[in-house]
Amino acid sequence: MNVRYRITLTSDEREQLCALVQGGKGRVRRLKRAQILLAAAGGSSDGTISKNVVVGTSTVYRTKRRFAEEGLESALSDEPRPGADRKLAAKEEALLVATACSSPPVGRARWTLTLLADEMVRLTKHTSLSTETIRRRLEENQLKPWQKKMWCIPKVDTEFVARMEDVLELYAEQPDAQRPVVCFDETPRQLIGESRVPIAAKPGKPARVDYEYVRNGTANVFMFVDVNRPWRHAKVTDRRTSRDFAECMRDLVDVHYPDAERIRVVMDNLSTHTPAALYETFEPAEARRIIRRLEIHYTPKHASWLNMVEIEIGVMVSQCLSRRIPTKAILVREVKAWERRRNQDKARIKWLFTLERAREKLGRAYPKLATETAKRAAA
To answer: Residue 264 in contact with residue 180, Cβ under 8 Å?
Structure first.
């Protein structure tokens, strides 16, 4: 027996349906069901609603029935749809995850969907498995075994924690013009020229660059960033030797901060980043004069991300250097123009990783470090 359902909406239900339809946001099926209910409440027949909303009369009937029997939200939502049973049982899915996380077969660099499907056929009673089944089960477990990320994994020990907290505490200090905090690092760059003249872009056609190129040697870009004011300076050199480092430190003292009592410099542990480099470059008295004005704070090993200048170098590379630059002269010109604009814009780095956050993130390491320290003291 075909029951005729009469739709009566409360003021809240009508307001909700009108907002859904007028907003125009949401899944199409949900919007159409809202239109059906509003039209039915207005007295329209099923045939008229079917024609105006562009749905079948069976859809109109089911929507009205679910509203009358189960309520508004049920009428707007999709009904559970029967589907085929999952191809892999729970134990088989666990086996798939374990296999995907294991080493690939001999002679293969990584697992692929086809390799995993074949391996699961070998390990289970299935006669065949599609790569789509494997992909869906891996996606549910957030696994992509064919992808790898290069990562330098630091050893979180007492030295790591001490250097990390030293740098973070330095960033948190109140600005002091007499004791500025400056981050320092460098990035090597290849000088690459075009083997053929590029073709400029035209409407409907992107610019075209020949895949062949000419190597013109290398250069290096040293970078200074002031932690507490919107200033950075980039210096292009031929190399990044101890002498180049020493000359950068002399520039920092005499050119960039001539009136500062002491300059706190954050840098990484590169072999050239030492006070000895100044003695290799300058007379002892000159080297000593420069060193007396510097206070060096080293980041932990394999943790150069704690150096704020790494962010600025990334900005420079993405905004200025992510292209072919053929000569050192052009590199110098482009870097100077980028630096001038960046300083004029008063761009700053917003540092969010504080000492408190570090202790929260690495809190599991601190008790262990304390235990190890106590054991050494007892021994």
So the answer is: yes
